[in-house]
Description:
By secondary structure, this protein is of the alpha/beta class. Among the domains are: about 1-125 and about 450-520, 3-Layer(aba) Sandwich (Rossmann fold), CATH 3.40.50; about 180-335, no CATH class. Helices cover about 60% and strands about 20% of the residues. The strands form 3 sheets. It has a 6-stranded antiparallel beta sheet with strand order 2-1-4-5-6-7. Strands 8-12-13-3-14-15 form a 6-stranded mixed beta sheet. Strands 9-10-11 form a 3-stranded antiparallel beta sheet. α6 (about 150-200) runs antiparallel to α12 (about 320-385), α7 packs across α11 (about 295-310) and α14 packs parallel to α15. It is elongated, with a radius of gyration of 48 Å. It starts with a strand and ends with a helix. About 25% of the residues are buried.
Amino acid sequence: MLSKLSIKNFALIDDVCVDFTSGLTSITGETGAGKSIILGALSLVLGKRADLNSIRNNALKCIIEAEFVLEKSKFLILFNKCELDFDTHTIIRRELLPSGKSRAFVNDTPVTLSQLHSISNHLVDIHSQHETFSLLSEAYQLEILDILAGNLVLSENYSEKLKDYKEVSETILELVYKKESASKELDYNTFLYDELVEANLKNANQDVLEETYSKLNNTEAIQETLKSVNGLLNEEQYGALNILKETRNLLVKLNTVSSDFGNLYERLNCVIIEMDDVSEEMINLSSSIEADPSLLNEINEKLQTIYKLQKKHTVATITQLLEIQTVLEEKIEITNNLDGKIKKLEIFQENLHKTLKALADKIHKKRLSVIPTLKNKLTNTLNDLGMPNATFKFELTSTTIFKNNGTDSLLLLFTANKGHNFGPLNKVASGGELSRIMLSFKAVIAQYKRLPTAIFDEIDSGVSGEIAYKMAEILKEMSLTMQIFVITHLPQLAAVGNQHIKIFKEDVNQITQTKLKTLTKEERITEIAEMIGGKNKSISAINQAKELLN
């Protein structure tokens, strides 16, 4: 149960702190006094998105704390699942900073809004006028059936499988699109790849090929040049080598005259030896170079292929061509493997489809099974609320579409009077009737969904007289098994509470503030009398207030 609420620097509230009791707490106040502010503060501490405009004084942070008394047996597993320390007196704190940032804490441990929602969804059920209209939505109606049917585990399993199914389906679509795009390029990539493979470039050396081609292409010129040079060196009368050798013979004669000539002789002799080597090498080269038209043509074709590929792919080396070949091979392999990947995923998708269908069928059957019970409980409660002829019709059909809550389509039809046609709630139910219908649903849900606390904001809209008494009785009965808060304008509902809190405005230092006060018995008489007869309360109104409280 909610045992305490502390609010600082929020909207019109400067600093308030109120303790709550178990059972039923009535909250009253004039229109505009700030009842919605209290509800807003509580919604905020339970995980609602923060609004910087809610800060009363922008120079200070806003702090809202809610203390809950919890049973360890019911909440320990939840806290462990959220990786939070459990305490029987759990304090949830929400802070709004002037910078616009917000922080949340559970027992002084910082938490995300997702963690906070995971906890708070099991603590408090807030019913507002907006939620009355949510009763008109199919999703809310199906949720009610699931609560009665005990579909929580089934629904969680269904949601997990549906998530997997959507992810796999999306991946398949992406791969199919990728395959279609890749298929358009596959033929061309295959052509480019085959062309490079056919060129057999892995062991090719462009520099060596170009050099060999140059030699073979100039064989005759090379041989003629070598022959001419060799002739110049070895011509019998005027050959360079013969002249040098004659010169060396002359120097031999001077070698005995001075050692200086001996040095010249040695140097000249070295030149002759080197030139002999050059001459011999040229003879060997000349004999080794032979014309080979077939090899020349083969190398020429190889080089032309390389040049053509380099131009096509705008690169300058064989290494770069080989890199392109590797990239093309990978692209072709990926494209060819897509079919296999898609097939595997489609098998997985089909299995998920079967699992989802089985889970959806179980959910559908369990929903169908509780409809008679729900109809019976609703009509009995509405009978107590002055609608003896109210009748519901639940048209639940299973479709082939996997929706977030199953495959069911639900049409909830209603009639409040005998002999009248059934119709959707928003077409045939008045505002007062909708309030009573919503309370009936809540009363039924409370028997199955054991939340510690429920808050009803203006559940009495469009209700008065004897129906208000009946509504008070139902709320009182609900409060025997859970903590109930009712924000009301009706004296009948205000009087039924174990605790009565008044919300009012007060000017403090010329600044309007919203205040809360827990009323004593005498103050309750005065408050309820004013709700009956206005500010100028009569003796009759006071007596009626006393009677309501007794």
